């Protein structure tokens, strides 16, 4: 799924990842980053304490973890709002409570881990997110 997303994403796209600890949010970001060309020798880790990591890809990949944020105004300080819809692919972990501040658009992915394995539930918000969802869903058996 990460490779398929990485192939379809383009500058301006926003992914918001939700799910409990251990559900696979950072694992998914790592798979996307690898597809975008981040070498396996470079770590792709959760920016839990740094809040934002930027990876040198084409277009740039901005990976944020908003778990520790208390207020939507902090998104501006992090420079996230100015990157969405513009020059970078922005992937946000724990961003659901900041939906409005993030622009209300994008592809929301809720990941879950249970006894049967991992599941992903997609929610497209906006025209580009709908097109992205259709592209990554093409050819996936249901």
Written account of the structure:
By secondary structure, this protein is α/β, with parallel strands linked by helices. It has a single domain, classed as Rossmann fold (3-Layer(aba) Sandwich), CATH 3.40.50. The protein has four helices and six strands. The chain has a six-stranded mixed sheet with strand order 2-3-4-1-5-6, with helices on one face. Helix 1 crosses helix 2. The longest helix has 11 residues. It is globular and about 40 Å long. The two termini are 14 Å apart. The mean pLDDT is 90.
Furnish the topology, listing elements before pairings.
Elements lengths: L1 H7 L5 E5 L6 H11 L16 E4 L5 E5 L7 H6 L10 E5 L12 E9 L2 E9 L1 H11 L5
Parallel strand pairs: 1-4, 1-5, 3-4
Antiparallel strand pairs: 2-3, 5-6
Quick overview:
This protein has 142 residues and is of the alpha/beta class.
What is the CATH superfamily classification? Answer: P-loop containing nucleotide triphosphate hydrolases
Strand order of the largest sheet: 2-3-4-1-5-6
The figure for the number of domains is 1
As residue ranges, the low-confidence spans are none
- First and last CA, distance: 14 Å
Rg of Cα set: 14 Å
Q: Write down the overall geometry.
A: globular
Order of helices and strands: HEHEEHEEEH
- Estimate what percentage of residues fall within beta strands: 25-35%
Structural class: alpha/beta
CATH topology: Rossmann fold
Total strands: the figure is: 6
Helix content: 10-25%
Major sheet summary line? 6 strands, mixed
- Average pLDDT confidence is 90
CATH architecture: 3-Layer(aba) Sandwich
């Amino acid at each position: 799924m990460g490779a398929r997303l990485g192939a379809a994403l383009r500058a301006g796209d926003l992914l918001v990842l939700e799910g409990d600890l251990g559900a696979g949010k950072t694992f998914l970001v790592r798979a996307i980053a690898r597809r975008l060309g981040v070498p396996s020798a470079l770590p792709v880790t959760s920016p839990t304490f740094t809040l934002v990591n930027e990876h040198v890809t084409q277009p740039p990949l901005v990976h944020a973890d908003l778990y520790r944020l208390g207020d939507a105004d902090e998104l501006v300080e992090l420079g996230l709002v100015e990157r969405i819809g513009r020059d970078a692919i922005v992937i946000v972990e724990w961003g659901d409570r900041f939906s409005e501040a993030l622009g209300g658009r994008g592809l929301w992915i809720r990941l879950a881990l249970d006894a049967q394995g991992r599941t992903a539930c997609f929610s497209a918000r906006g025209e580009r997110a709908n097109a992205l969802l259709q592209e990554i869903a093409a050819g996936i058996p249901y």
